[in-house]
Design goal:
- This protein is of the alpha+beta class and 444 residues long.
- It is built from seven helices and 28 strands.
- The strands form eight sheets. Strands 1-28-27-26 form a four-stranded antiparallel β-sheet, with no helix packed on it. Strands 2-3-4-5 form a four-stranded antiparallel β-sheet, with no helix packed on it.
- Strand 16 (233-236) and strand 17 (239-242) form a beta hairpin.
- The longest helix has 22 residues, at 422-443.
- The two termini are 16 Å apart.
- The relative contact order is 0.13.
- Bound molecules: 2-acetamido-2-deoxy-beta-D-glucopyranose (7 copies).
- One 2-acetamido-2-deoxy-beta-D-glucopyranose binds next to loops.
Length: 444
């Protein structure tokens, strides 16, 4: 036992040093979870055995895509996009059971029932408002992009009490019940409250708007939401993959004045004023602006309180746009600036293939879900090549998401725009103190 003490004290001192330096480190990355195939938290071992043998669970058909975080819990979507059976769950949260990370259906198993229109059918993504603890989930209502089971809908859960609090079915003239692919969602605050949701419909190449006040929806379609003739081939680690996929990634500026969007099959990044989207009568595309070409094609995007982060799928990397720098250099405002400075945040050719979507926590970390979609999508049966398909990373960026304290910003009570480093500082202070004691104990 006494032999362990020097080791422990050395480790403590090392951790002390690490904690001290790491807290300062923009871009520090950590691979948090890794799965080859998803593992669910089944009610019983017998249920799992039955589901595997009767075909309602085929592990290699389950690939996660959406990620969001709330109070230390990670939420994940598992799109039922490619197959019509074998995917028992479309929305889940990560739980740790006997040291293993598993997915527990959210809010429960019943809410995942394929064919039950009160339940979730095919969830590609969701958004969480950290100010209220509400999660906004988009559901295409379709399975395998071929079984047209239900109307598309937006479902809201209160994560604080794990209860569904709202459900809105889209009329078919806004979101088709036979061809939509609702892909990603951002929220728009007005007067301290969530007023609109903006949702990309990939198959319709349009942005769907939902107004929570009037409980009505409309859509805006524009040629910039389609794919680009030269943009649909994505080269990843030397192999070419064809992704003729339109509008996909969407992000909201922290002042709620602009929405950013891009197609997967393309390089262009566009900006549209929320003013245009908020107007139900609008059929024109007022203020849509090409910002420039990204370094690569992008699936998901997210805006923090400072930067716009986006996947660079062909580079196995995540980049960010420091608009402040470009605005200063061009001496123009955000409504005029173009995309010039693109900075690599993280790249890892083997462990960061296909950065899919992003989340912020309230501690300064950006979370990244990546899933090697290029392999999964292009194989009839995704091969077991020994490599994990799904990984979750977090990268320290010292900022929070665009929604952080939005209720205060819009009410003008606080600027709320930057992360106070207090939480990190307090954590580190406690940690340092404990480690200091451990060091002392080790030495004497
Ligand atoms: C985080 O950002 C704030 C301002 O936004 C800055 O004062 C602070 O030094 C930064 N902290 C780290 C660890 O980079
Ligand atoms: C397959 O087994 C699961 C788990 O017991 C069960 O919930 C489901 O209803 C079964 N499906 C069919 C088609 O029998
Ligand atoms: C799709 O919408 C049409 C009307 O727009 C309706 O007749 C049909 O029943 C709907 N199908 C489903 C599966 O909801
Ligand atoms: C599962 O969640 C749904 C939707 O929130 C709810 O209506 C239902 O009562 C829940 N079922 C159980 C068994 O908790
Ligand atoms: C597509 O690529 C070709 C060859 O590189 C180029 O000549 C052409 O201008 C490109 N078209 C567009 C729309 O970018
Ligand atoms: C962003 O740009 C500003 C203004 O040029 C600069 O001060 C800051 O260091 C940049 N931040 C990063 C992380 O590149
Ligand atoms: C990629 O990530 C893994 C896991 O964190 C790490 O071991 C490896 O060094 C990284 N590779 C590069 C080139 O950074």
């Amino acid at each position: 036992m006494s032999q362990n003490i020097p080791l422990f004290s050395m480790l403590s001192c090392f951790l002390l040093l690490w904690c001290f330096t790491a807290a300062q480190n923009f871009g520090r990355a950590q691979l948090v979870y890794e799965w080859k195939w998803i593992d669910f938290d089944w009610p019983s071992a017998e249920d799992e055995r039955n589901a595997r043998s009767n075909g309602s669970f085929v592990p290699e058909r389950n690939l996660f895509s959406g990620i969001k975080e709330y109070k230390g819990t990670i939420y994940i979507s598992i799109p039922r996009r490619k197959w019509t059976a074998g995917q028992p769950v479309s929305l889940a949260r990560v739980v740790t059971i006997d040291g293993l990370a598993k997915l527990r259906p959210y809010p429960n198993w019943t809410a995942q029932q394929q064919g039950d229109c009160a339940a979730l059918q095919f969830v590609q993504s969701m958004e969480i408002d950290p100010n209220t603890g509400f999660m906004y989930v988009i559901d295409t209502g379709r399975v395998g992009l071929s079984l047209n089971l239900c109307p598309a809908k937006l479902v809201v859960y209160d994560l604080k009490i794990d209860t569904q609090i709202d459900l809105y079915e889209f009329p078919t003239h806004v979101v088709s019940n036979t061809s939509n692919f609702l892909n990603d969602i951002v929220l728009d605050y007005v007067n301290g409250q969530v007023r609109y949701a903006y949702i990309t419909d990939t198959n319709d190449a349009s942005i769907v708007v939902y107004d929570f006040h009037s409980r009505s929806s409309w859509k805006l379609k524009d040629p910039t939401m389609g794919m680009e003739s030269n943009g649909t081939v994505i080269t990843i680690s030397g192999i070419q993959y064809n992704f003729p996929i339109a509008l996909n990634g969407i992000a909201m500026s922290p002042d709620f004045k602009y929405v950013y969007y891009c197609s997967l099959g393309g390089y262009n990044l566009y900006q549209i004023p929320t003013e245009t989207l908020r107007n139900p009568g609008t059929s024109n595309s007022n203020g849509i602006r090409l910002l420039g070409k990204k370094v690569s094609q992008t699936d998901g995007m997210i805006h923090g309180s400072k930067f716009l982060y986006y996947g660079a799928v062909g580079l196995n990397a995540v980049y960010f746009w420091n608009a402040t720098k470009d605005m200063a250099e061009m001496n123009v405002g955000i409504g005029v600036v173009t995309l010039n400075t693109q900075t690599e945040l993280i790249r890892n050719d083997s462990k960061l293939q296909w950065p899919s979507t992003f989340a912020f926590d309230d501690q300064g970390w950006l979370w990244i879900a990546c899933n090697r979609l290029q392999v999964f999508w292009n194989a009839d049966n995704p091969p077991d090549d020994g490599e994990a398909y799904m990984r979750i990373w977090k990268v320290y960026v010292n900022e929070t998401g665009y929604l952080y304290q939005a209720h205060k910003i819009e009410q003008g009570k606080s600027d709320g725009s930057t992360l106070t480093s207090s939480t990190t500082d307090v954590d580190c202070f406690v940690f340092l103190s404990v480690m200091f004691l451990c060091c002392l104990k080790g030495y004497y």
